[in-house]
Amino acid sequence: MRAIVMGCGRVGEQLARLLADEGHHVTVIDSAQGALDRLGQDFRGERVVGVGFDRTVLLRAGIDRADAFAATSSSDNANIIAARIARNIFNVPRVIARLYDPRRAEIYRRLGLLTISSTTWGAERIRELLTVAELDPLLNFGSGEVAVVSIETPHHLVGRMVRDLTIPMEVSVAAITRDGRAFIPTLGSEFRRDDQIHLVILASAMERVKHLLGIAEGG
Questions:
Q1: In whole angstroms, what is the distance from residue 139 CA to residue 148 CA?
Q2: How far is residue 26's CA from residue 135's CA, in Å, rounded to a whole number?
Q3: For residue 177, what are the domain limits?
Q4: How far is residue 16 from each of residues 65, 89, 198, 204, measured CA to CA in Å?
């Protein structure tokens, strides 16, 4: 994959390194040469000095051949402008913009732009760790609205069915690991002792799930 990362702050630098280490062709854009220098001599990608939403700079970075574009600078406005140019003018298949102000996320979502708000994600993650420690998420989607959690079958659910732990549009059992092997259950599948249950949960339904699992408030 040919990817462009606009903004070489902490997030952009880390993202660029992760992508490069996975073998992707990465080009990093930043207006400050010093920021790009922090990538070091071992960085296998390319570096372009310039304003990340300048079309000339984007063309130098290979935007017309890019498969993915991530706007990760410290400016919401710059990120959105760059993301819209990448998506609407150069038709880059995968475009994402980092936002600091979560109130803007819905506006840009309506424009068809995928955004990540570190503020929202961070707040959701802290709330989860404070209030739902027993259901520590293994993975989050979007800005934390949906989470994947795993838990061993509670005593009171042994012999019960998957349908008893399913709430349409809020909670679903994605898989069960039993005796070291995972499978996708049906609504009629029974929970057994020592099963590891893998759930996909809407963040707003966490308290309901705790009740279904018999997890007492505060542990």
A1: 5
A2: 36
A3: 127-213
A4: 17, 23, 31, 33
What's the token pair of residue 183?
């499978």
Q: Model-level pTM?
A: 0.60
Considering the domain architecture, whether residues 113 and 139 belong to the same structural domain is answered as: no
pLDDT above 70 covers a percentage of the chain that reads 88
C-alpha dist (Å) from residue 195 to 19, 155, 166, 173: 35, 11, 16, 12
154-164 b/e (C-beta count within 10 Å ≥ 16 → b): eeebeeebbee
End-to-end distance of the chain based on CA atoms, in angstroms?
Answer: 45
Averages of pLDDT over each 10 residues, the chain, 219 residues = 94 91 94 93 93 94 95 91 93 90 73 74 59 62 82 89 91 92 94 92 83 63
Place of tokens 């902490």: 10
Q: Which two tokens stand for residue 27?
A: 């080009």
Tokens representing 35? 């920021």
Q: Name beta bridge partners: 97.
A: 71, 115
Q: How many angstroms separate the Cα of 140 from the Cα of each of 58, 134, 144, 169, 174?
A: 31, 16, 5, 16, 14
Q: What is the CATH number of the domain that holds 156?
A: 3.30.70.1450
- Quick one: which H or E segment has residue 32? none
3-state secondary structure of 118: helix
What backbone phi and psi angles, to 5 degrees, belong to 171?
-140, 130
